[in-house]
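Narrative progress, year one. The postdoctoral researcher (J.K.) led the effort to move from monomer predictions toward full complexes, under supervision of the PI. The following entry was the first complex the group processed end to end, covering 364 residues in total.
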Amino acid sequence: MQFTTLTPVNVLTGFLGSGKTTLLNRWVRQASMRNTLIVINEFGDIGLDHQLITQSDEQAVVEMSSGCLCCTLRGDLSQTLQQAIAALLAEGKPAPSRVVIETTGLADPAPILQLLMTDHWLAHRFQLDSVVCCVDAANGEATLQAHRESQRQVAIADRLLITKTDLVDEARLAPLANQIASINPAAEQWQVVNGNLSPELLVGAGLFRGDSQRYQVDQWLKSASYHVHHAADYRADKPQQSSISAAVGQPTSQPTLTRHGENINAFCFCVEDPITPDALENWLDLLMSLMGEKMLRIKAIVHLTDRDEPLALHGVQHIFHPPAPLPPSSVNDRVSRFVFITQDVAPASVAQLYTFFTSSKEAL
Ligand SMILES: Nc1nc2c(ncn2[C@@H]2O[C@H](COP(=O)(O)OP(=O)(O)OP(=O)(O)O)[C@@H](O)[C@H]2O)c(=O)[nH]1
């Protein structure tokens, strides 16, 4: 896979009224956002948000209304971008150097990420750079309790912005910050008033940074932010978890229990020895077919028995991006690390399925 020519895409999500448009308006006015194509998805025939974006010659704003990108408009994203880019070129303007997609407040961002991986035209031209999620400081806690979409938006994000912090006391911010960190421990958190935040903090969460021309494996995977489960601890001959996973300083492994009884789990599964390609394929295939809907996001650096260079994997629900080979120098060891963000799937289920395929491989 060739990363260098792909245009970065930032997905801006967050529940209804959480401050997405306010942020976008400030964000795209920054000099570093020149030549950005903004796609705004709104419900209803007469969307308003696109009118709230200050337009200039340096940005193009296109609106996708009458439906939600995560449900009914999936096929339209590719068409919308193709038309918008063709229109820019016809006006003698350059193709965009970045695309920002603002979702509806009720959107599940996972299908939008899937689209970027599966749509042939999109996948060959764009790569996900970051998912930015706004969480309203005043309503965020209640919204998270009540709305599954809001939990999934937080769980899948690379950057979590607590917005409207001018409306609440410091004392109310801490519980919300803890709540969203328990759902998504690896995402950077920032507090924002009226969308005022440096644009540099919102971008650059992808595996490859075009501006630096390098792979940023640690910043992308952030495996150290998660509670770690080791494959060796789940072997049939070793029923007890070792003390490694209970080491001091490990993030909590407590799932975040929502009102609907759904657990968001964010964890890292480590495999010390290189994995056979068959075991990897069988394990991931079964995971996706049994639990795909509940796999919000998977990122992994994988070492296989039959190749020296590590592979980067990125999956959303049932879909995986084609594996990207990385230069061996981009990692420090041969440990495979899989970061999972799941809804209602315990780490033990993922680990035990892995054990099944690896310990019984002679029988397969
Ligand atoms: N006090 C305060 N109000 C804010 C802030 N950010 C946004 N708002 C207000 O909150 C309301 C909703 O903000 P929007 O930016 O439209 O939120 P949105 O997420 O785009 O809303 P939808 O498109 O309806 O989902 C607006 O009235 C904003 O002016 C903030 O930091 N402080």
